[in-house]
Structure formats: structure tokens, C-alpha cells
Amino acid sequence: MGRGRQKAKHTKVARELKYFSPDTDLTKLESELGGNPRLDEDLAKWPEYATTGDATESQEDADGDSDDEAQSA
Length: 73
Fold this sequence. Notes:
Distance between the termini: 72 Å
Shape: elongated
Structural class: mainly alpha
Strand content: under 5%
Largest sheet: none
Order of helices and strands: HHHHH
Radius of gyration: 27 Å
Mean pLDDT: 75
Helix content: 55-70%
Number of helices: 5
Number of strands: 0
């Protein structure tokens, strides 16, 4: 018999969640999205992890054949 009250409470909670917009700390967000300030230092230590251009070129080198050769066969 209490289904109407329960449904109304769930509807109220859902509406509050839908329209709730908390204050955003933009400076904190910017610092989180800014990246790693030590990236250049880390890449100097481990140059094999540095990306150097197109990912398909490195995939081609690893396979030993190119897409053009695979299409012509």
C-alpha cells in the first residue's frame, strides 16, 4: 500500500539529481587536465616510450608489410 509514497520519493530524488549542478573549481580542473609537468624529463629517461608520429607507421614496421602490399595480394 505504500507504493505511491515510495514512487514519489524516488521521483523527487531523481529530479534533484538531474537538475543539481555543483560549483566547479575550474583552477583545480585545469591543474588536473594540464598533464604531467615532468613529461619531458621522463621521456628523456625512456625514449622508447616517446611517440614519434603516426601510429600506423610503427604498426607497419612491426608487421613487416604495408597496407598496399596486403591489398595487392
